[in-house]
C-alpha cells in the first residue's frame, strides 16, 4: 500500500469517525425531542446505512460496530448491545446495496425503514438474551414504526449528501490538471 | 492462501461479531453490567460535553422561537388586559363616585332643620369659574317651593341664601360673596357680629365688640337676627383675630364651615313643614 492510499484510507476513517460522533451527539441531544409514540429519528442508523450503501461490507460492518459502541457509551448501556445490532445493520446495508438498485429515493427510504426495524429487532433480541426485561410488544412496535418512518424520510437526503461528499475528491483531482494547463 | 470475496466478508463479519459478543459478555458479567476502560472514558469525555453544548444551544434556539411565537399572543393578551383594566378603572371610578355621593347624601339626610323649616335637597348644576366663591345654581326652583332668601345649607353648615328663583332652578348667593352679610354669634361667648364675604375662600367677621373675647378656633353660628337665617347654623371657625389700635371693633378671618369649593348637593331650607 502506497503512502497516498494510506493517507486516503486514514482520511476516510477520520471522516467516518467524525460523522459517527456527530450522529451520536445529535441523536443524544435532539433525537429524544422528536419522540413521538415511543419512536424518534435515529441519525446513527441513517449514517450507518449510508456508509453501508457506499462502501464494502467489511468496512460497513466495522463502521456499524464503532457506531453502536459509541451509542452504547453515550447511552450508558453495556458495550456491545447496540454495537452488534449496528454491525449487522452496516453489513446488511452494504450487501443489500450490491444486490438491489438504490437509484430512487423510494428505494433508499425502504432500505432505511427495513434497516431501522431490523436493527431494533436485533437489539431487542440481544437485550432479551442479556437478561433485560422485554418491552411490551405493541408500544415497542409503535416506536419502531415511527422511527422507521422518520429514518425513511431523511435517508434519501443523507444518502445523496453522502454520495456528493464522496465524489468531491475525484472532481478536485479531475479539475487540478486543467487548471495547471491554463 | 487467498480467500474469495464472500468468504472474506463472512470471515470479517464473524470476527467482528465474536469480538463484539465477547465484549458484551464481559460487560454483562460486571456488577453494573457496564465497565468503561480508559478509551471509553476518553470518548465519553468528548461526546458528553458536545451533547450538553448542543442541547443548550437547542434549548436557546427553542426558547427564542417560542418567544417569537408568543409575541403575537402576548400582543393580543396585552390588548385584552388593557381593555379589561380600562373597564375596571371606569367601574372603580363610578363606584367611588357613587360611594362619595352616598356619603354626602347620608350626611345631608342627617341634617335636622329648625321646626318651622322644611328642607329641599338640590343638586348644584352650574358654577361660574371666574367667580367661584360668589354664586351657584341649583336644580330646584319655585316649582319645588323655593323662594328668595331661603337659607341654603349642607350638613356641615351654612352655604348661602337663594337670591334668584326660576321655576326649575335657583341661584344661590354664597356666604363668601361680598354682597353677603350674615348675623352671627360666637358660640362660646354669645357675642354678636357680622360675617361678610370676601370673594375668596375666607370670610371676614366684623362689628364684634373690641372687648369681646375671641380666640382662634371659636365657632361662629347664625344669630337668627335679620329674619333670613334661622338661629344656630354653623357659619365658620375663627382662624385669625385682627385687632387694630384705636378701632371700636375687632375683626377676624373666618374659615367657612362648609367647603364651598366642593359643593355638589345642598339643602334649601324652605319655610313650611316636612322635607321634599
- What is the helix content of chain A? over 70%
* Largest interface between protein chains, with number of residues from each side: A-B, 34 and 29 residues
Order of helices and strands of chain A: HHHHHH
The biggest beta sheet of chain A is recorded as: none
Strand count, sense and barrel status of the largest sheet of chain B are: 6 strands, antiparallel, barrel
* Approximate helicity band of chain B: 25-40%
Distance between the termini of chain B: 131 Å
Q: What string gives the helices and strands of chain B in order? A: HHEEEEEEEEEEEE
Please give the count of helices of chain A.
6
Overall, the morphology of chain A is: globular
Structural class of chain B: alpha+beta
Tell me the number of strands of chain A.
Answer: 0
Identify low-pLDDT runs of chain B.
none
Count of β-strands of chain B: 12
Strands side by side in the biggest sheet of chain B: 1-2-5-4-3-12
Using only CA atoms, what is the Rg of chain A? 18 Å
Structural class of chain A: mainly alpha
Mean pLDDT of chain A: 84
How much β-strand is present in the residues of chain B?
A: 25-35%
Residues in β-strands, percent of chain A: under 5%
Subunit arrangement of the protein: heterodimer
Q: What does this protein structure show overall?
A:
The complex is a heterodimer of chains A (182) and B (276). Chain A has 182 residues and is mainly alpha-helical. Chain A contains six helices and no strands. The mean pLDDT of chain A is 84. Chain B is an alpha+beta fold and 276 residues long. Helices cover 35% and strands 28% of the residues of chain B. Chain B contains two helices and twelve strands, in the order H-H-E-E-E-E-E-E-E-E-E-E-E-E. In chain B, a hairpin with a 4-residue loop joins strand 4 and strand 5. The radius of gyration of chain B is 46 Å and the shape is rod-shaped. The mean pLDDT of chain B is 87. At the A-B interface, helix 1, helix 3 and helix 4 of A face helix 1 and helix 2 of B.
